[in-house]
Amino acid sequence: MAGVTLDTVRKIYAGNVEAVKGVSLGIEDGSFCVLVGPSGCGKSTLLRMIAGLETISGGEVKIGDRVVNQMEPADRDIAMVFQNYALYPHMSVYDNMAYGLKNRKTPKDEIDRRVKEAARILAIESFLARKPRQLSGGQRQRVAMGRAIVRKPQVFLFDEPLSNLDAKLRVQMRVEIKRLQRALGVTSIYVTHDQVEAMTLSDKLVVMSGGQIEQVGSPAEVYRRPETRFVATFIGSPPMNILPGTVEGPGRVSVGGQSIAVTDMREGLTPGSAIEVGLRPEDVQAGGAGASSLSMDIDFVEELGATQLFHGKVAGAEFIVQASTGQLPADTRNLTLAVDPGNVHLFDPQTTKRLGRV
Amino acid sequence: MVENRPFAQFMAYLTLALGVVIVAFPVYLAIMASTFDTATIINGNMPLVPGDQAAENYSRTLFYGGMHARQPVGMMMLNSMVMAMGIAVGKILISILSAFAVVYFKFPFRKTAFWIIFITLMLPVEVRIYPTYKIVADLGLLDTYTGLILPLIASATGTLLFRQFFMTIPDELLEASKIDGAGAFRFFKDTLLPLSLTTVAALFVIQFIYGWNQYLWPLLITTKSSMQTIVIGIKMMITTTDALTEWNVAMTTAVLAMLPPVLVVIFMQRLFVKGLVETEK
């Protein structure tokens, strides 16, 4: 086993397009690291550079304590699961899993033992003789993981492995990947654009945008204390509401003339300067006119079953409130929202960085 | 679409049947002619049902030949077979390798190389016949199998077909085999080749028939009668000026000449069609 260390890794494509702009990141041995971001943010490129499928334009990639920049993918001791599974269509499931070991001149009985073991772990023993096209999406996904497991690599790389599955299967496979990673304890790097997958799977969550890392942390940290406005609106569904406001004084901001208290606020901000106020839809409570409250006009309601989303406007900006079904009558036209000072996030309108306590 | 117009349907079938008759009748006639003796055919009243000379005609043609050519057609068939197989196999080998290079390797002037191959499509044997003949003659390859085969095996069609097929193979497959420790050659042998089997079969059928039907090139470079191909053999049997053409032998030879391509098509038809239309990976 080994951790992975990235040191100012860059990728510059022909035509001077910089896809990855100097990413530094340490991934501890045995941890599950998820790279998440919108498409085109450089997360897949970064993964492919770790795998050795893309050349590294600058910086250094280390697996364990070996610098792997110049190594062939096969020599890096990694295994990769692809989005479209990339199973060899003409080989049986057994041969698909055994192929990498055969190329490494592993003895036949050892190959057999490892393939059988992986098949048992993944519950695909009964398909070993079949061809990939005779399998369903979920089964192919398992075979792709089996192919990774049998190699006993230092690092697993996952490139959006669940995006070709239907919603139900995705949830099921997500749990299985997590369980498997726990059981095997292999360092894993997982790329996805789905923030739910990212939150549920990761020990370490890396949010990327525009070829750079926006924030690294545990899922809870990233959710509770987003470092930039981008992270705040990307992680969490429905996304965080962002309202324009102004600084009133220490621990107080005003939104459209309504004053609210804030716990996590940087000291020394000039009163009267503009600020962005972030509130998660699930963090505001309907009703209750406390010291911090906002009034909201409601346009329409979305039913989600257990919860309802109230869409409307606060101080002229779009706002969403999530409430348990039945808590509010569906024909509510306006609301007073109680705001917990601990749940208010402040961002600099220019730099978009968090203006919390240092 | 559900339609029930009996008259239109009848006309459609009639047209189709007519087409089949037009194509099939000469073939049928040739087969029938190969079962009579010369006199019966010459007098112009050849019956359309099989005669009783089949065994005699076929054994004489295969092992002895006609009165004028005096070459056993069996040997001509062997020559044709060697040439057609050589051309088909050679074309497949060369084109699959060049397509592999053009698709999977990045080298300077890759595009140029591809376009040069593409342009050779416009230069069939007939256009470059003189220089080709000169080269083959200078190399001392007249009257050899090598001389018959070599100038015909470069194939732009094959390269294009394989290139199109390789481009449909997802890149991830190459990447997966890189991670599995397979180098370029192993990827070719273990993944590309097995996946190309149907394309290979399709190309084999086309090129075997192309090779078998070659007329101009063998006519030019073979002078010894022992190197003649069957297509030339037929020609020699019917262009005699001062004697009767042995139509029974000529027709028997024609039937024999049709046989191998027909067998190739019949046995490889399923793979052939799959190779040309397959999209599923």
From TrEMBL, chain A:
SUPFAM superfamilies cross-referenced by the UniProt entry: MOP-like, P-loop containing nucleoside triphosphate hydrolases
InterPro entries noted in UniProt: AAA+_ATPase (IPR003593), ABC_transporter-like_ATP-bd (IPR003439), ABC_transporter-like_CS (IPR017871), ABC_transpr_MalK-like (IPR015855), ABC_transpr_MalK/UgpC-like (IPR047641), Mo/tungstate-bd_C_term_dom (IPR008995), NA-bd_OB-fold (IPR012340), OB_MalK-like (IPR040582)
Could you tell me the keywords of this UniProt record? Answer: ATP-binding, Cell inner membrane, Cell membrane, Membrane, Nucleotide-binding, Sugar transport, Translocase, Transport
Asked whether the keyword Cell inner membrane is assigned, the reply is: yes
Gene Ontology molecular functions: ATP binding
- Specify whether Membrane is a keyword of the entry: yes
Q: Note one Pfam family from the annotation.
A: ABC_tran
Q: Where is the ABC transporter domain?
A: 4-235
Output the PROSITE patterns linked to this UniProt entry.
ABC_TRANSPORTER_1, ABC_TRANSPORTER_2
Which domain of life, per UniProt? Bacteria
Family annotation (CDD domains) = ABC_MalK_N
Q: Which PANTHER family match?
A: MALTODEXTRIN IMPORT ATP-BINDING PROTEIN MSMX, SN-GLYCEROL-3-PHOSPHATE IMPORT ATP-BINDING PROTEIN UGPC
Sorted alphabetically, which NCBIfam families does this protein's record hold?
Answer: PRK11650.1
Q: Which family does it belong to?
A: Belongs to the ABC transporter superfamily.
Protein name as annotated: Sn-glycerol-3-phosphate import ATP-binding protein UgpC
Q: What is the source species?
A: Microvirga splendida
UniProtKB/TrEMBL annotation, chain B:
Alphabetically list the UniProt keywords.
Cell inner membrane, Cell membrane, Membrane, Transmembrane, Transmembrane helix, Transport
What InterPro entries does this protein map onto?
MetI-like, MetI-like_sf
Q: Which residue spans traverse the membrane?
A: 12-31, 82-105, 112-133, 145-166, 187-210, 247-268
Q: Which organism is it from?
A: Microvirga splendida
**How does the entry describe its membrane topology?**
Multi-pass membrane protein
Q: Name one Pfam family in it.
A: BPD_transp_1
Please verify whether the record's keywords include Transport. Answer: yes
Ranges for the ABC transmembrane type-1 domain?
77-268
Principal place where this protein is found?
A: membrane
* Record-linked NCBIfam families: PRK10973.1
What subcellular locations does the record give? Cell inner membrane; Cell membrane
Outline the subunit composition.
The complex is composed of two ATP-binding proteins (UgpC), two transmembrane proteins (UgpA and UgpE) and a solute-binding protein (UgpB).
Instruction: Tell me the function of this protein.
Output: Part of the ABC transporter complex UgpBAEC involved in sn-glycerol-3-phosphate (G3P) import. Probably responsible for the translocation of the substrate across the membrane.
Please report which protein family the annotation says this sequence is part of: Belongs to the binding-protein-dependent transport system permease family.
Q: Under what name is this protein listed?
A: sn-glycerol-3-phosphate transport system permease protein UgpE
Say yes or no: keyword Thylakoid present: no
